[in-house]
Model the fold of this input.
Amino acid sequence: MGERKKRIAVLISGRGSNMKALVEASRADDYPAEIVLVISNKPDAAGLEFARSRNITAVAIDAKAYQGRAAQENAIHQALVDHNIELICLAGFMRILTEDFVAKWPGKILNIHPSLLPKYPGLNTHQRALDAGDKKHGCTVHIVTGELDAGPIVAQAEVPVLPDDNAESLTARVLIEEHKLYPKALKMVAGE
Ligand code: GRF
Done:
């Protein structure tokens, strides 16, 4: 690849399986992005250990350590700046970023959401799709704006909803697609 890889931070709160998928994908020589920083708002997030095992800088920026949301977000922003981050991937990051923060990174923050947006922004997406009797469900990668789960869509993947599905089985089917979709979407955006 002629051009250098873009420097990516992934923000997580827990397991980090989508972050893992991004790390694995970015190992390919021709992938246009590399994960250089993982930030969790939870110190006990399992994903932090995985990132460290791959020699990726992984830090917890815990709300409890800061006086209020603005101070925590300032710390996150500073870490991103310090590591020369060019794009941010939210991957199971369970804290809503303020408009002030998002305005500092216009068009530079991606999120993966477990529904076919604009359906089901917010939480409990799988149960809501089941309750509505949907035949199709899936996941979306979108650009983060000041409005929750509402920014421009980069890519989506669909799965069927099967007659005997429950929230657990549907979650698992969507997650398999998330792990393919996020690397594909980041490739598109980082390669632009
Ligand atoms: C994923 O389903 C993602 O779509 C949602 O939170 C979950 C995070 O899982 N926003 P993981 O931490 O990436 O394993």
